[in-house]
């Protein structure tokens, strides 16, 4: 049987550069694999956890529910601010996937996920380091997506529940 080979601790920085490069090349599965290698030797590496989470969200639309669950399982391993911020990222990116999927009710579920994301971003903003406006920028993107797509809340019986 094939075995996973470990990387050396001194290879972590270069491996993380490669993971980021693979994400930029739209090859999230490759980035995911590298992050898993880094986490094998540094289980609390925050950069690897964040990159892994983003790599998973890059794969939304390909068995999305399973990937969403995998991404959410990483949240408790992050620091408090990042937990809230990346919970928002998961909801926002899932909302975007819903819009692109175009299934019946997609606009209603996208609206619910964007609202969920904005709640997480508000929580993150409250914990935000000084001069870090990332959560505000993401919140504003959610507001604009709602406006651009003319999204509204569903009637109660049509509503899909947010991820959490």
Q: Please, what is the average pLDDT?
A: 92
Estimate percent helicity. 55-70%
Counted up, domains total 2
Largest sheet: none
Shape: globular
Number of DSSP strands? 0
- Share of β-strand residues: under 5%
Radius of gyration (CA) equals 17 Å
Q: What is the H/E order?
A: HHHHHHH
Describe the structure concisely:
The chain has helices spanning 12-24, 28-41, 46-58, 64-74, 80-101, 106-127, 134-149. The protein has 164 residues and is mainly alpha-helical.
Descriptive overview:
With 164 residues, the chain is mainly alpha-helical. It folds into 2 domains: 8-77, Serine Threonine Protein Phosphatase 5, Tetratricopeptide repeat (Alpha Horseshoe), CATH 1.25.40; 79-159. The protein is 68% helix and 0% strand. It contains 7 helices and no strands. It has helices at 12-24, 28-41, 46-58, 64-74, 80-101, 106-127, 134-149. The termini are far apart. The model has no long low-confidence stretch (mean pLDDT 92).
List the helices and strands and how they pair.
Elements: H1 12-24, H2 28-41, H3 46-58, H4 64-74, H5 80-101, H6 106-127, H7 134-149
Helix pairs in contact: 1-2, 1-3, 2-3, 3-4, 3-5, 5-6, 5-7, 6-7
């Amino acid at each position: 049987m094939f075995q996973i080979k470990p990387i050396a601790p001194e290879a972590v920085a270069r491996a993380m550069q490669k993971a980021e490069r693979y994400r930029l090349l739209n090859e999230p599965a490759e980035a995911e694999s590298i992050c898993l290698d880094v986490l094998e030797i540094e289980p609390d590496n925050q950069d690897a956890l964040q990159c892994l989470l983003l790599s998973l969200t890059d794969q939304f639309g390909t068995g999305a529910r399973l990937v969403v669950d995998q991404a959410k399982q990483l949240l408790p391993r992050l620091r408090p601010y990042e937990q809230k911020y990346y919970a928002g990222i998961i909801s926002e990116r899932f909302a975007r996937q819903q819009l692109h999927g175009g299934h019946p009710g997609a606009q209603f579920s996208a609206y619910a996920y964007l609202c969920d994301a904005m709640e997480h971003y508000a929580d993150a903003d409250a914990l935000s380091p000084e001069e870090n406006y990332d959560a505000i920028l993401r919140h504003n993107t959610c507001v604009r997506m709602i406006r651009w797509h003319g999204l509204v809340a569903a009637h109660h019986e049509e509503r899909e529940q947010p991820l959490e």
